[in-house]
Amino acid sequence: MQKSLKKYFPIFALPTLAAFLVAFFIPFLMGIYLSFTSFRTVTDATWVGLDNYVRAFSNQDFLNASWFTIKFTIVSVVTINFLAFILALMLTKGIKGTNLFRTVFFMPNLIGGIVLGYIWQLIINGVLSNWGVDITYNASYGFWGLVILMNWQLIGYMMIIYIAGIQNIPTELVEAARMDGATKFQTLKSITIPMVMPSVTICMFLTLTNSFKLFDQNLALTAGAPGRQTAMLALDIYNTFYGRVGWQGVGQAKAVIFFVVVAVISLTQLVLTRRKEVEQ
Amino acid sequence: MSTAKAKKTDIREASEVSKGSGIIMTAILAILAILFLTPIFIIFMNSFKSRLFISNVPFQLPNSETFVGLTNYLDGAVKTGFFQAFGWSTFITVLSVAFIVLLTAMTAWYLTRIKTIWTSALYYLFVFSMIVPFQMVMFTMSKMANMLNLDNPVGIIVIYIGFGAGLSVFMFCGFVKSIPLEIEEAAVLDGCGPIQAFFRVVFPMLKPTAITVAILNAMWIWNDYLLPYLILGTERKTIPVAIQYLRGGYGSIDMGAMMAMLVLAIVPIIIFYLSCQKYIIKGVAAGAVKG
What pTM did the predictor assign? Predict the structure, then answer.
């Protein structure tokens, strides 16, 4: 079997591999190379060493976007996970209408980022119009608008994962705790929360990477306005590439920095997950 | 998690909640559910109002002065070419998902069954691609697509296969590892070649994972904005590109058309969701656990 299958590489693996090389791998390697060059298309690259990286780190827009992204990510990760966990606790108590509630809370997750952005733009502008301003008036409006939007989109998704985690807790464990006279709060603190830690890890990871890499919602809701104060990293990289002639090299350098940060976050998460798996 | 266990959990916890707190919780959840649906309702309501009134009084129901019937829908559909956009989105999503499921399942089986240094290197390369943000390759990839004449609705499918490969190969490999080798060996003894063995024996067994892979990729490709915008431009728009197109350059947005197009973009998603809800929720949960 092994031997006969081996010859079938061109049929089984080559089509995927070819698409993968064209769409991802070659552009990835070219991207790393181009971040050390000055270019406008891709064929006119001249080597400039670390110049692009120096310009990226001294670019005020990039520093603003980094700070905005970090603040946004922290606030969203905390609020989304907190609210999703509470909803999951309520929806595992066997009350009436559980399925209907689950359906409703999950639904916004399927709507695309561009559509979500314009939905919330209308609503937030509608509320702010009472004070005669709109979302582009102040960067903190855009910030909280994005946080609300992200909560609306992701709470249902994380809730589903927490529900699966809570339902996986062995019934005997909770029964035993109750026999020993544990209060509801003690059960929650000493049994439910430690037992759903794997779900917490997954949800933390998903909210963290989704918030950090956010682009569509950001573009539709504020597009960075006022000025570029509410542009997150992904949008700032896009603006650098397509908004400023002669800055493509800097855009690519920013993208490499962005990639390294995302990779470090993902790998840290992977190591932490592995460690937890060993402990269990 | 087995269903029997889940049921047991529900019964146990039903007895845990007293009737009074059950009612309070149901009430809280009902209010939250209404809050969750309000944004969609507001968009729906505004899609029937004249564009001049949408920004001023977004939270008022349409009345005889503001109601314009289907004008916004007609205007918006003409301005954005919405129905063509719907066609392109469907074409690109359906074909990309079909090819991703078929090709990555084949690749995953090959990579799992043939153990060489090259196949494991390839496997890790696919896994690695999952953590690379799109901005890293966006510029070079769109130039590459340009050079290879892939900047059309058929070529973009190749790009989606390449980008979808990471997660899909990873998920299929996880499942293939759990299939006992004996089943395939029996098929070979019966005279099947590798291609027949795959399509007759292996692929049917992969069905649960195939559904998950299909749902995750369909959700992503249907809603994707930046990749089709960079590859296809605004000449052949997908739905997200058509909606962003309404914002235009510096002019103000036609809010009436925008509301109507948002409704048209949401309706197919909700229909799809309500008709295969079971698979979607299961698929998303399974995808999260593995990803």
Answer: 0.90
